[in-house]
Amino acid sequence: MRAATPPLADQAARDRIASDLGSTLFVEAGAGSGKTRALVERVIALIGSGVAIENIAAITFTEKAGAELRDRIRDRLHSPDVQGALGADVAEAALRQLDGAAVGTLHSFAQRLLSEHPVEAGLPPSVEVLDDIGSQIEFDLR
């Protein structure tokens, strides 16, 4: 007979990520600790609770992590168990809206806010956000 796996030391925190849907959370943990899995399950739980994916912000620090998060959310929304739990229509609606959702880096989220609310942010009409190469060129010119 196989011994039961002991609970993880941070199991209470993992459970909170998935179930405390009324709170805004900051999740900090090392590589390979399950952050992305926990965030995906939180997003699925939020959708299941009736929150439209367009009203969810899932923010990471790197482009790679942001792309992985988006891909894993997409995969979960395609999975039969999630489609059954949420209802195929809810899962399909979330899939259609996923590419426009605020799932990505802190920088992409900030850029989104500024581009959607330039007047409120006090930005001049012709403001432009440069990519890495454009930014480096402008820096070198000054």
Describe this structure in words.
By secondary structure, this protein is mainly alpha-helical. It has 8 helices and 2 strands. The chain has helices spanning 11-19, 35-48, 63-78, 80-86, 88-98, 106-116, 118-121, 132-141, and strands at 57-60, 102-105. It has a two-stranded parallel ribbon. Helix 3 (63-78) packs antiparallel against helix 5 (88-98) and helix 4 packs across helix 5. The longest helix has 16 residues, at 63-78. The radius of gyration is 19 Å and the shape is globular. The mean pLDDT is 88.
Structural class: mainly alpha
Order of strands in the sheet with most strands: 1-2
Q: How many strand units? A: 2
Largest sheet: 2 strands, parallel
Task: Write a short abstract of this structure.
This protein is mainly α and 142 residues long. The chain has helices at 11-19, 35-48, 63-78, 80-86, 88-98, 106-116, 118-121, 132-141; strands at 57-60, 102-105. The termini are far apart.
Primary descriptors:
142 residues, mainly alpha, 2 strands
Provide the fold topology.
Blueprint: H1 11-19, H2 35-48, E1 57-60, H3 63-78, H4 80-86, H5 88-98, E2 102-105, H6 106-116, H7 118-121, H8 132-141
Parallel strand pairs: 1-2
